[in-house]
Design goal:
Distance between the termini: 51 Å
Largest sheet: 7 strands, mixed
Strand order of the largest sheet: 2-1-3-4-5-6-7
Structural class: alpha/beta
CATH architecture of the largest domain: 3-Layer(aba) Sandwich
CATH topology of the largest domain: Rossmann fold
């Protein structure tokens, strides 16, 4: 019995290293990779847009911000743009437009979806560019709102969470109707 315990104690450091390696490869503490952006994610983003105090109706230009040199960002942009062609939220009909980060100065949409896989420096660039333009930034990455780089982050699995960064919202001049506050987690 004592020999079994000694063997187990010798194996523990190797198991810990293997677990840490698995987490670093998958990018999450749970050891599972994040899923693609889903139709539910995009539907929730459009629903959030419908709560703007200047409630948009009809065609709504939605920019999808991505880095063409980043495969994860490109793939996410393709998925989001494809989903935007099939989803409608109430009276809002999204018209998507791909915007490379190098073209962020030309951003003219009232809403922009930030793809996953971008660096903190790229998120800083986006955050700075949207402040003067009153653009609502949305993402499926919770850290985007938690760090104040996006106004809203949507998490649809395992349960729906709408994370709202009030400071980011104020800095961009984006305002929501009062009932929206009942549906969100304000950071």
């Amino acid at each position: 019995m004592i020999n079994n315990i000694r063997c187990l104690l010798k194996a523990v450091p190797r198991l810990v290293v293997a677990g840490l390696l698995a987490m670093s490869l998958t990018g999450t503490a749970t050891g599972t990779a994040r899923a693609e952006t889903t139709a539910k994610d995009v539907q929730l983003m459009l629903k959030a847009v419908s709560f703007l105090s200047s409630k948009p109706t009809g065609s709504l230009s939605v920019s999808v911000l991505f880095n063409p040199a980043n495969p994860e960002s490109v793939k996410d942009a393709e998925v989001i743009r494809s989903l935007l062609t099939t989803i409608k939220a109430g009276t809002i009909v999204p018209v998507s437009k791909a915007v490379e980060l190098s073209q962020i100065a030309t951003l003219d949409s009232p809403a922009a979806i930030v793809t996953r896989g971008l660096s903190m420096g790229e998120l800083d660039e986006i955050s700075t560019a949207v402040k003067a333009r009153k653009v609502l930034t949305l993402s499926t990455d919770p850290d985007c709102a938690k760090t104040g780089k996006c106004v809203i982050s949507i998490v649809s699995e395992p349960k729906v969470q709408v994370l709202y960064n009030g400071a980011a919202g104020q800095s961009t001049g984006v305002e929501f109707v009062p009932t929206f506050r009942m549906l969100i987690t304000e950071l």
